[in-house]
Amino acid sequence: MAKLVRHRFILRNMLCDCCLKLVQVVFEQKNITLLKAWLGEVVLTNNPEQYSLDDLKAIFTVLGFEPIEDKESQLVEDIKRVVIELVHHSTFNAMVRNSDFIVGKFNLSYQHLSAVFSRKEHITLEKYIILQRIEKVKKLIQLEDFSLSEIAFMMGYSSVHYLTTQFKKITGYSVTEYKALPEKGRKGVS
User: pLDDT at position 127, please?
Assistant: First the structure.
């Protein structure tokens, strides 16, 4: 019997829970053991006689998750994961500065992280954070459970005016116009 080999993959575009579930289901069907599966990262063991490293990479690619091999690109995906954690999956938005949260996850300066991110993504890290915040605001608006004041506070905006100004700048719609759009007319920011 062949020895099991452990592999770690950093994956581009695997940034939501649905992506994670897809990977878990596909690899379970192929009898490949996932040791760790987290947004943008998978650690697994497999029998190399059953699936080669290239086979594993091809599986991820077919699913739309490109394996990343260069260190700077891996760092960028890690930064994206941390931003998504901050904006979409934590309650820290109103309590901590974005830069402090991000730096706390890495042993690198914010300036370095921002420079690498901008070089690789052709967008500033600050702009990426703003885009993610606006996506979260859109979800909160659609829920209709919170007032704009509550959303502004939850998302760390200093005022409703600042939130609505940034919302219009990014989406092209006022909050009122956005609420009036049919669901299919609402687009995510890229």
Answer: 96
